[in-house]
Amino acid sequence: MASWYEKAVFYHIYPLGMLGAPFANTEDAAADRFPELDKWVAHMEALGCTALYIGPLFESSSHGYDTRDYKLVDRRLGTNEGFRHFTKLCHEAGIKVVVDGVFNHTGREFFAFQDIQKNREGSRYCGWYKGVNFGWNSPYNDGFGYEAWQGHFELPCLNLQNPEVKQYLFDVIRFWISEFDIDGIRLDCANVMDFGFMQEMRAQTASMKPDFWLMGEVIHGEYDRWVNDGMLHSVTNYELHKSLYSGLNDHNFFEIAHNVRRLEAIGTKLYTFLDNHDENRIASKLNKKAHLPLAWTLLFTLPGIPSIYYGGEWALEGTRTRESDAALRPCITLEEGEAKHSDLTDLIAKLARIHTEQPEFHGGRYQELLLTNRQYAFARHAQESVCITAANSDDQESFLSIPVPLRASQAENLMDGSIIPVENGKLNLTLPGNSSVVLKIRED
């Protein structure tokens, strides 16, 4: 029986941006933006999403990743009570909730860092941070130095080998489970985190809540170093993300197929996406808007746990600048979004339901069936059935003769319900330009 996260279709929200929170957290009183967020639950449900990744949420000073207080929801969004109500609405709609765990570093306003500023060598928290050194000075003129994430000294790095730090962070996760009933954590900066810390986290969280999901932000590297029975359940599949848009832009399905084969051993466990809060929007990355439906079809049917970054269902565009990621994290009301509803929105909702309903996509084996620069077909296997995706990225229609990997007489088109015969072990299709199809074939 597949777990909830193996079947999941995720929706991804960057709440500070989507809800129009001010960049600087300077107010004493909490805002009340959660009633606006509550409206999105029905939208996620209508799209066919069964899980939400939302974050950052911890009380912070600016962009959300400079944490002030791990047990307080960011006051620019609202109160703990407001978020508790939101998670309850999600769960009532059958939507699991995963939040950002910003555990690699804190902000400078976090209590432990401020204690070092105040008490210097006498602080009991000197060992909570990496590289605290009173022999040199930080760019903030603290009178001491410390290790900072990628040289950003507003983000001092926690020492995740310190038993007190580890226990504190495990208690934070326990707090979020007990207070908000969250279902998982997305570990920010997992690629640079201490492996021992993540191993202990896996063991600790397994006893806190059954089926609690740990997903890490990892860009480069051998993903199975992080994704295994002793570490995390999943990491972000940036490799597939890159190959999807560049493979379509270059008319090179070989790049996508090569990447899927490379990750075959763990690919079904990886968190897959077309865009997110750190990446330019897929609608801005693709050279041809006609390739957007193809990209979404591949995302939902290739191995992985697919996600929709808010606004992607309406083909929102956005490109980061050297100074700002704000264009990737826009403020948008649900009403403004729904006014942009299009055929793409309907396609994504249909693909989400196909992904949820067909067991082939819940960890099913991948098999390449046909591959050229501009045409691609592959199967996902279940016990006595397969789902086959066929795609044509050329502007012209293309005839495909696809070998069927089991004994069958017909295929059902899951997009429109039509029936296509299987003749002599082959599916013979004519695909229009820039189109794709998802088929279900049951063994005779």
UniProtKB/TrEMBL annotation:
Domain Glycosyl hydrolase family 13 catalytic: 17-355
GO MF annotation: an example: hydrolase activity
Record-listed E.C. numbers: 3.2.1.1
SUPFAM superfamilies in the cross-refs: (Trans)glycosidases, Glycosyl hydrolase domain
Coiled coil, from the record: none
Keywords: Carbohydrate metabolism, Glycosidase, Hydrolase
A Pfam family matched in the record: Alpha-amylase
InterPro entries, sorted: Alpha_amylase (IPR006046), GH (IPR017853), GH13_cat_dom (IPR006047), Glyco_hydro_b (IPR013780)
Keyword flag ATP-binding: no
UniProt record similarity statement: Belongs to the glycosyl hydrolase 13 family.
The protein's name in its UniProt record: Alpha-amylase
